[in-house]
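<tokenise_the_fold>
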Amino acid sequence: MSAPLDISVAVLAGGLATRLRPITEKIPKSLVPVAGRPFLAHQLEMLHARGIRHVVLCIGYLGEMIQKDFGNEAYGVKIEYSFDGPKLLGTGGAIKQAIPKLGKEFFILYGDSYLPLEYRPVAEAFHRSSKLGLMTVYHNEGKYDTSNVVYRNGEIVVYDKKLKLPEMHHIDYGLSLFKASVFDAYTADQVFDLAEVMGRLVREKQLAGYEVPERFYEMGSPAGLAELETLLQSKTS
């Protein structure tokens, strides 16, 4: 188990999870059962093992159910909640709203990602870079999803989810790290996507990269959910 790491993690868990319907018609994605437990239980357990002690859950759709089930602490991790409010703010807007609870720098993790990596080396690489943000990447070659990153010499040269370039061999791994000041450019209640923030930092040469050797897992799609179920079942059997 890693020593405690004094950086919070924002978990983006407010989406509608349409790809998992009908499962998510009555429960949010974070509560979808995987290997006999809500997925969020697996996420928090892994975060604690990596030294994380504080999480802010950015919630929207059916988020009250998550708060009711997990409360203010679970698996040794303190939990705070940041609600989108009457309208969905997008991944960027949800982070902007949560910043008062997150501090001057923080990790961002997608609510459907299961990532077997160590967090401390990522934080150390971020601090060495002296940049405003860092994206973890995986040498994907189109295997697990569409590759969307051109990564060279520790730098994110191109990041684009729509543009497909032959030199895109890497993919956004699902964990990033930012200074809170990055979000000063956006207003409260503004609807925007985290990809927009990352794209701006790439253009400003302010987005560092960190290559992760282990593949990522996700449960945001039926195929990903089935694969993760197999993985986690094998760990408990």
In short: The first helix runs from residue 39 to 49.
